[in-house]
Amino acid sequence: MTRPSWVFINFTLFLMMVLICSSLQSSLLHWIFNWHATFQLAITIAVYVILNRGQVESLIFTYLAFYCMAALSNMFEGVAVLTGVTLYLGLRTIRTRIYSPTPTHFTWAALSSIFLFHFLSWIFTVGLELNVPRAHPLVWVLEILITALGIKPLYHLLQWIDQKTNRVTVSEIIL
Which terminus of the chain has fewer Cβ atoms in its 10 Å neighbourhood, N or C? Predict the structure, then answer.
């Protein structure tokens, strides 16, 4: 296969993983955990793409991923996309200043993005909606702790997918 087809397959695989993780997060895991905190794998996958892809590809992926996450939950699509683009801008800015292709850097970026996603979406919802929602910071922190348990295997899975689809990451280009 040619190189563009591998890029398309890689993009599609990551987007399908976001769809699967979003549907698990918004239905099955809430049913199992009785509507409490769940793993935030879809945000973690989006952070991986933002950190390891070019600007245009990661922006398109961010838009699609956060739109799909909102469509599969009870969140407004506009708020989710606005929050996702804000996270994208923040991560890309930080990536230009400090970047390390290690699992530790990815873990801290993903876990802080999960908290910021909840906080920023709450702030944007307060600014855009008449009925102000309640903030749940303890649930946000619990979701960060739960996600931290499985973030390293997910990181290695995402790298394995990149390897199998012959995807060159930004860290390989820089080094």
Answer: C
- 34 sits in the region (left: phi over 0; alpha: psi -120 to 50; else beta) called left
pLDDT tens, the chain, 175 aa long: 446 677 778 888 888 888 888 888 777 767 776 766 677 888 899 999 998 888 888 899 999 999 988 888 878 888 889 999 999 999 999 888 887 777 788 888 899 999 999 899 889 888 877 777 787 888 888 888 888 888 989 998 988 888 888 776 554 444 4
User: Domain segments of the chain: what residues?
Assistant: 3-167
Do 88 and 62 meet the contact criterion of CB atoms below 8 Å apart?
yes
CA-CA distances (angstroms) from residue 1 to 68, 135, 166?
29, 49, 11
* Calpha distance 171→175 (Å, rounded): 6
Both tokens of 69, joined, read: 């996450």
Minimal CA–CA distance to 85: which of 115, 106, 61? 61
Residue 19 CA, distance from chain mean position: 11
